[in-house]
C-alpha cells in the first residue's frame, strides 16, 4: 500500500512535537504540518515553558505522571547534549513557596523532578511572607528556540510545512489519509468543542540576568522563571477571557507581586508584555475519531486542550498520539486489503 499521508493541524508545541513523534515512530508516513500561525505567533511562544505540571481533573493521575515523566526524560537528555543551547532547554533550580502549609506535601510529580525537598530555614529567610517551601531542580524550554528546533528536526525528516487555516477537518479528506488535530484553542471553532475554553495569561519578559533561580508562589499566580536570555514574570489566570491585548493595570500588578518575592527585580530592564490564551479543558482530548460522509471515512486523532501545562507533558501526549496514528494506519490497511478481496 502507498505510504499513508498524515496532516497535523497546528504548529504550537503540541503540533510540532506530535508531528516529530509520528515521523520517528512511523518513518514510512508522509507527514505535513498545516497551520495558520507558526512561531513566534503561537500561544506556545508566550509560555514560560517550565516543567511543573498542572493537574487535569479529568485525567487519571498515573496517566499525567507518565506524560510528565516521558517529557522530563526526553528533555533531560537534550539538556545533557550539545544541542541544549540551540534547543533552548536547560536545567533550572529554585523554590516553590507557600503562605500556608499546602494540603498535599508531596505533589505527584515530586519524584520526577530532581532533588525535591522541603526548603531549609536559611532558604526560607529569603521569603519573609512565606511559611513553607519546596526546593527542586526542573527543566525549562525557552520559546521560540525550542519550536524552531522542532521545526528544524521536522524539515530534516522531510516534513512539509504550510501556512493554511483549516475551517473544517473534512476539507482535508481528498488530500490526506489521517488527520491529527493539534489546533489548541483553535479546536473550539474547528471541531466545535464547547468544553474547550480560554484561560487568559498575561506575562512580562524582562532583562534581569542576575536572577538565576525560579521562584513560584504555591498559589500558582505569581512566578519568576529565568530563561537563557530573559526572565518571565507572571501572571494571571482569567477564565473565558478572549482578549489578547495587554492590560496596563495588570502589568503593574504582576510587576509589584514579583518584586515583593524578589526585590532586585525593581532594577529589571526592557520590560515586554505578552498575552496568551491557554487552551483549557477538564482533560486533554487525546483520542481517535472516524469522520464519515456516506461511505467515505476520515480517521482523526485529537491532541489538544493542554491548558496551563502543555510544555510539561508535550512529549508524553505526542507519543500517545503517534500510537493512535498507528491504530489508524492498521485500520486503513485492513480496509484496503478487504477492498481488494
Ligand atoms: P498553540 O501554541 O496555541 O498552537 C495551536 C496551533 O494551532 C497554532 O499554530 C495555531 O495557529 C494553529 N491553529 C489553530 N486553529 C487552526 C486552524 N483552524 N487551522 C490551522 N491552524 C490552526 N505550560 C507549561 O507547561 N509550562 C509553563 O510554564 C507555561 N506557561 C504559560 C504561560 C502563559 C502566559 C500561557 C498563556 C501558557 C503557559 N503554558 C505553560 C501553557 C502552554 O503555553 C500551552 O499548554 C501550550 O502552548 C499549548 O500548545 P498548543 O500547541 O496546543 O497550542
Automatic annotation (TrEMBL):
GO terms for cellular component: cytosol; peroxisomal matrix. The keyword Signal applies. Keywords: Cytoplasm, FAD, Flavoprotein, Oxidoreductase, Peroxisome, Signal. It is found in: Cytoplasm, Cytosol; Peroxisome matrix. It catalyses: D-glutamate + O2 + H2O = 2-oxoglutarate + H2O2 + NH4(+); D-aspartate + O2 + H2O = oxaloacetate + H2O2 + NH4(+). Its cofactor is FAD. Its EC number is 1.4.3.1. Residues 5-324 form the FAD dependent oxidoreductase domain. Its main location: cytoplasm. D-dopa binds at residues 223, 278. It is an enzyme of class 1 (oxidoreductase). One of its GO terms (biological process) is L-aspartate catabolic process. InterPro entries: D-amino_acid_oxidase_CS (IPR006181), DAO (IPR023209), FAD-dep_OxRdtase (IPR006076). One of its GO terms (molecular function) is D-aspartate oxidase activity. FAD binds at residues 43-44, 166. It holds the Pfam family DAO. Residues 1-19 form the signal peptide. Belongs to the DAMOX/DASOX family. PANTHER family: D-AMINO ACID OXIDASE, D-ASPARTATE OXIDASE. Selectively catalyzes the oxidative deamination of acidic amino acids. Suppresses the level of D-aspartate in the brain, an amino acid that can act as an agonist for glutamate receptors. Protects the organism from the toxicity of D-amino acids. May also function in the intestine. This is D-aspartate oxidase. It comes from Syrrhaptes paradoxus (Pallas's sandgrouse).
